[in-house]
What does this fold into?
Amino acid sequence: MKTKNILIGILSLLTFASYAQTVKKNITETKSAITEFLIETNNIEELKSFDWSMVAEMFQENDENQEITLGFSYVNKSEIDKTKVRVDNFEFKVTGKTSNLKNLTSKLRRTFEKLSELDGKNKN
It folds into this structure.
C-alpha cells in the first residue's frame, strides 16, 4: 500500500510539474506607422515641383484610419526686400487620415502654386 501511495504521489508531482512548465506563447504583433512628414526649403519652386508620389509611397503601409501630418516650411534667406510682394518664412501643416492622403496633398499643391504666383510677382 505504501508503494502504491508513493507511486500515486510521484505521478501526481510529475503531472503537476509538467503542467506548471507549460508555457503559453502570446505573440504580440506590433505594427509601426509613419505619422508625420516634414520638409524645409528656401526655394518655393522646390515646394511647387515636389515629388508627391514619394509621399504616397511613404504612407502606403499605414492603416487607412491612421492620423497623419504633412508639413512644409519655407525659410526666406533674403534679407533685402526690393520688391512689392515678399513671401516671408512660413510653416504649413495639414492633418488627416491616411485614407485622405490625396486630398491632403492636393491642398498642399494648390497652396504652393499660389505661393509660386506671389513669388513670380516679385520677379516682374
